[in-house]
């Protein structure tokens, strides 16, 4: 396999990483809102959050992507391929991340919160100093896990016309008849990217405040 | 709440599906000219029409649409999708026309509009070089033959299979390139595709593949595809006119020679395909 082919795979990998990172970040922002709704005492909010999660966790990502790409134009929103891919990945990961965050927040020991109330902390202070750091610490490993899952799931976005790493590998394998070398290289690139994500995740996790080791 | 309204949008879209009308501007030709870009949908796994040569999108379609773009005074923007996703996306208005190309069939003419044909699409078999068990099309009886999913070649192969003493073991692939890879790897005995396609593959991979002649079944042609509705009529008329001009001044024959090694005599329009 030539250097040129490997370069093309690396270029496509940049696409894969960009789409995944943007989707994880947008997904995290949505997840914060959805998890807050889930934990809300307002029944209606909680219900809406439940419906959101059920849908995006219950429908296969491939189907979601095709729905967003082909169905949104029916109501007058015609999004380009790359936007459809990011919307699909973001909403899907948001559903999973919201559940993770909910788990994290509900695992904050009630005793800690009560103690904080006893010493006269305001609800905002309790959230900022007690709940949020502990919940973040508890959910961080799951977040890294989710990032890796999304990086791999991004191989599906070629169905809406985005040429990412997997699709590039397929195209190259088809035109060069070197499927073994090309898919092995693509696999290696995915492995290295995810290894870096896991490594960085581990480093960040150790520097997080919160529950002591 | 962004997520929530999006969800509502999706649910709304699900209800609207079926009754929805195209959200396009009324006259697509005017819209295309105003945008300065003609969006063309295709799959990049159908050499020599559309394929990736070391990362570059290339083929007859790319050259031909470059000429059509010149005639219309617009740029060409390509959108590459898996073949079975191309028609739904065309109907959803993701692009203005499909390059494909697709075999002109009765069923497709009911739903879509075709441009003047660009090549003959009559089906033939590609086999591994030196495979003596297949020397004529009838020899594929009982053998594993690869073909593209949701393609007219699939229908043609099935029809041919019915005429044989033992039926063909038809293997459907998302893209033809994958079937060629399986043929090279010896997982299937042959690939059924239109003659220009497999002739090109065989010429690129001498010593690996061979074409089984003659082509079989009824004569058919390839054309580009657009929507049939009134909104798209001016655009499709303009593309037809551009293509007929390109054909009349010899540019079409030149491109056919470049990509197929020979030029084809094709009718100006196919109104009543053989199947």
UniProtKB/TrEMBL annotation, chain A:
<keyword id="KW-0812">Transmembrane</keyword>
<keyword id="KW-0029">Amino-acid transport</keyword>
<dbReference type="GO" id="GO:0043190">
    <property type="term" value="C:ATP-binding cassette (ABC) transporter complex"/>
</dbReference>
<dbReference type="InterPro" id="IPR035906">
    <property type="entry name" value="MetI-like_sf"/>
</dbReference>
<dbReference type="InterPro" id="IPR000515">
    <property type="entry name" value="MetI-like"/>
</dbReference>
<feature type="transmembrane region" description="Helical">
    <location>
        <begin position="75"/>
        <end position="96"/>
    </location>
</feature>
<dbReference type="InterPro" id="IPR043429">
    <property type="entry name" value="ArtM/GltK/GlnP/TcyL/YhdX-like"/>
</dbReference>
<keyword id="KW-1003">Cell membrane</keyword>
<dbReference type="InterPro" id="IPR010065">
    <property type="entry name" value="AA_ABC_transptr_permease_3TM"/>
</dbReference>
<feature type="transmembrane region" description="Helical">
    <location>
        <begin position="12"/>
        <end position="39"/>
    </location>
</feature>
<keyword id="KW-0614">Plasmid</keyword>
<dbReference type="GO" id="GO:0006865">
    <property type="term" value="P:amino acid transport"/>
</dbReference>
<keyword id="KW-0472">Membrane</keyword>
<protein>
    <submittedName>
        <fullName>Amino acid ABC transporter</fullName>
    </submittedName>
</protein>
<keyword id="KW-1133">Transmembrane helix</keyword>
<keyword id="KW-0813">Transport</keyword>
<feature type="domain" description="ABC transmembrane type-1">
    <location>
        <begin position="9"/>
        <end position="201"/>
    </location>
</feature>
<dbReference type="GO" id="GO:0022857">
    <property type="term" value="F:transmembrane transporter activity"/>
</dbReference>
<feature type="transmembrane region" description="Helical">
    <location>
        <begin position="183"/>
        <end position="204"/>
    </location>
</feature>
<dbReference type="Pfam" id="PF00528">
    <property type="entry name" value="BPD_transp_1"/>
</dbReference>
<comment type="similarity">
    <text>Belongs to the binding-protein-dependent transport system permease family. HisMQ subfamily.</text>
</comment>
<feature type="transmembrane region" description="Helical">
    <location>
        <begin position="51"/>
        <end position="69"/>
    </location>
</feature>
TrEMBL record, chain B:
<dbReference type="Pfam" id="PF00497">
    <property type="entry name" value="SBP_bac_3"/>
</dbReference>
<keyword id="KW-0614">Plasmid</keyword>
<feature type="domain" description="Ionotropic glutamate receptor C-terminal">
    <location>
        <begin position="37"/>
        <end position="262"/>
    </location>
</feature>
<feature type="domain" description="Solute-binding protein family 3/N-terminal">
    <location>
        <begin position="37"/>
        <end position="263"/>
    </location>
</feature>
<feature type="signal peptide">
    <location>
        <begin position="1"/>
        <end position="25"/>
    </location>
</feature>
<dbReference type="InterPro" id="IPR001320">
    <property type="entry name" value="Iontro_rcpt_C"/>
</dbReference>
<keyword id="KW-0732">Signal</keyword>
<dbReference type="GO" id="GO:0042597">
    <property type="term" value="C:periplasmic space"/>
</dbReference>
<dbReference type="GO" id="GO:0015276">
    <property type="term" value="F:ligand-gated monoatomic ion channel activity"/>
</dbReference>
<protein>
    <submittedName>
        <fullName>Amino acid ABC transporter</fullName>
    </submittedName>
</protein>
<dbReference type="GO" id="GO:0016020">
    <property type="term" value="C:membrane"/>
</dbReference>
<dbReference type="InterPro" id="IPR001638">
    <property type="entry name" value="Solute-binding_3/MltF_N"/>
</dbReference>
């Amino acid at each position: 396999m030539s250097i040129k082919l490997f370069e093309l795979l690396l270029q496509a990998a940049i696409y894969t990483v960009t789409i995944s990172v943007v989707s994880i970040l947008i997904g995290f922002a949505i997840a914060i809102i959805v998890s807050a709704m889930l934990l809300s005492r307002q029944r209606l909010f909680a219900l809406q959050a439940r419906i959101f999660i059920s849908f995006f966790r219950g429908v296969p990502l491939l189907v979601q992507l095709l729905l967003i790409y082909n169905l949104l134009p029916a109501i007058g929103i015609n999004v380009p391929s790359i936007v459809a891919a990011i919307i699909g990945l973001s909403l899907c990961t948001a559903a999973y991340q919201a559940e993770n965050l909910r788990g994290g927040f509900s695992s904050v020991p009630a005793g800690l919160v009560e103690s904080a109330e006893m010493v006269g902390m305001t609800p905002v202070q309790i959230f900022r100093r007690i709940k949020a750091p502990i919940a973040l610490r508890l959910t961080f490993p799951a977040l890294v896990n989710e990032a890796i899952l999304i990086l791999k799931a991004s191989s599906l976005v070629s169905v809406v016309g985005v040429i990412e790493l997997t699709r590039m590998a397929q195209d190259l394998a088809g035109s060069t008849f070197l499927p073994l070398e090309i898919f092995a290289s693509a696999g290696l690139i995915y492995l290295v990217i995810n290894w870096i994500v896991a490594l960085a995740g581990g480093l960040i996790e150790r520097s997080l405040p919160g529950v002591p080791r | 709440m962004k997520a929530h309204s999006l969800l509502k949008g999706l649910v709304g879209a699900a209800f609207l599906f079926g009754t929805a009308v195209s959200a396009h501007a009324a006259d697509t030709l005017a819209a295309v000219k105003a945008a300065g870009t003609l969006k063309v949908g295709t799959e990049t796994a159908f050499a020599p029409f559309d394929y990736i040569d070391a990362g570059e999108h290339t083929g007859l379609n790319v050259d031909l649409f470059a000429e059509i773009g010149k005639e219309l005074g617009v740029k060409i923007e390509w959108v590459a999708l898996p073949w079975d996703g191309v028609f739904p996306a065309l109907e959803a208005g993701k692009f203005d026309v499909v390059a494909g190309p697709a075999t002109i069939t009765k069923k497709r003419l009911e739903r879509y509009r075709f441009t003047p044909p660009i090549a003959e699409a009559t089906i033939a078999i590609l086999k591994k070089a030196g495979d003596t068990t297949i020397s004529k099309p009838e020899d594929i009886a009982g053998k594993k033959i690869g073909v593209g999913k949701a393609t007219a070649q699939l229908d043609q192969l099935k029809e041919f299979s019915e005429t044989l003493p033992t039926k063909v073991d038809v293997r459907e692939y998302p893209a033809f390139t994958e079937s060629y890879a399986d043929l090279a790897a010896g997982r299937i005995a042959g690939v059924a595709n239109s003659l220009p396609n497999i002739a090109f593959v065989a010429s690129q991979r001498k010593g690996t593949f061979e074409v089984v002649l003659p082509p079989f079944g009824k004569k058919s042609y390839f054309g580009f595809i657009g929507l049939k509705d009134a909104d798209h009529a001016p655009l499709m008329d303009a593309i037809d006119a551009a293509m007929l001009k390109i054909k009349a001044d010899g540019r079409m024959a030149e491109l056919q020679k470049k990509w197929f090694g020979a030029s084809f005599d094709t009718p100006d329009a196919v109104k009543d395909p053989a199947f």
